[in-house]
User: Fold these one by one.
Assistant:
Number 1:
Amino acid sequence: AQKITQTQPGMFVQEKEAVTLDCTYDTSDPSYGLFWYKQPSSGEMIFLIYQGSYDQQNATEGRYSLNFQKARKSANLVISASQLGDSAMYFCAMRERDNTDKLIFGTGTRLQVFP
Amino acid sequence: GAGVSQSPSNKVTEKGKDVELRCDPISGHTALYWYRQRLGQGLEFLIYFQGNSAPDKSGLPSDRFSAERTGESVSTLTIQRTQQEDSAVYLCASSLSPVYEQYFGPGTRLTVT
């Protein structure tokens, strides 16, 4: 079974609008972490935001916030006030504590921001 | 400070040749990871080093793949007898410890002809 599922291969959003990128996960480990990375066309992976499984509040980093719904096993990324530079691939990833802490990645969502 | 660096940035090799890819992690980062990203796909875990512990090699796809790391410094990923299906971008990442976020290098694009 897929550990990380990103069901949106591509998304479009108009500049200055908000957009939500979906991510669901599957784990039986009570201690895990969820990450979002951005990969622009240059190829480098850029860390955006982290949510721990025991964190009580949703993580926020500037224009990025993580809508963490533990019971539904979802960790959607919300980007507010989209900018043209936000156009990139976005990957959701999970780290399981009892799985040597490696990151398991989803297949990604390509976000395109248009003027 | 300097980020994770990888070399070469691009490598074209003939099928059957061996290649070595290098990763310089961020200074002080004890954890180092190698991932592979095939065209249009997500990242696949290959191998993980943490300090002086035995590496986690569970993601290596075949015995043609191996990696070494000297202490908490440079790591090399070696692919022997390359095959066309090895063509991909190989990404290295490091972190202060496994519980922290991983910082990625720019990757090495490997093309096997």
Number 2:
Amino acid sequence: AQSVSQHNHHVILSEAASLELGCNYSYGGTVNLFWYVQYPGQHLQLLLKYFSGDPLVKGIKGFEAEFIKSKFSFNLRKPSVQWSDTAEYFCAVNAEGTTDSWGKLQFGAGTQVVVTP
Amino acid sequence: GAVVSQHPSRVICKSGTSVKIECRSLDFQATTMFWYRQFPKQSLMLMATSNEGSKATYEQGVEKDKFLINHASLTLSTLTVTSAHPEDSSFYICSARDQQGAEKLFFGSGTQLSVL
């Protein structure tokens, strides 16, 4: 069965530390990949997405992610976090990879990130 | 930016009653909306795809008679949990796809349903 795995459920780190969140998926076909963030009390927001092309994708707020096809991974990174990055982060996959299926996402369980001052 | 409004944000109901959750796209038309459910510490799981003017498509294992979806207009989809039971207690969230751009997808803020 298709699945999306996020390696950590909870991460605590200090401001200015580097962040890397792991995401692996199990699907052999064409995929579109996403990272969403949910700040406390707010909607899910798109951080970045990968469809094709350069496997290193840059998103908003200084986040980037690298798609490694051979590892079925799409890890999220930020070199230096801020207190305002405290949020829950979700990796998601559009496994069918077609325009018609756009929006039909399979999510990871999420990672709660807490940045301490 | 585009906003999807989901209402109510939290609802508590008695077992056996029905609960309706609304999902509205506020500044765009959404031919397609999606309904997800999330249990604590678990992923958001897609329940169904809601298409304006036609029947919803349910994912395997989701009871269509239990979770009634209506998408009567380009800006509104509703999910009704019928005869709710405690095991239906969950976080329900919708998303809407902007018909003007296949890459535009926006999420509601979710509804926490607690069935006593």
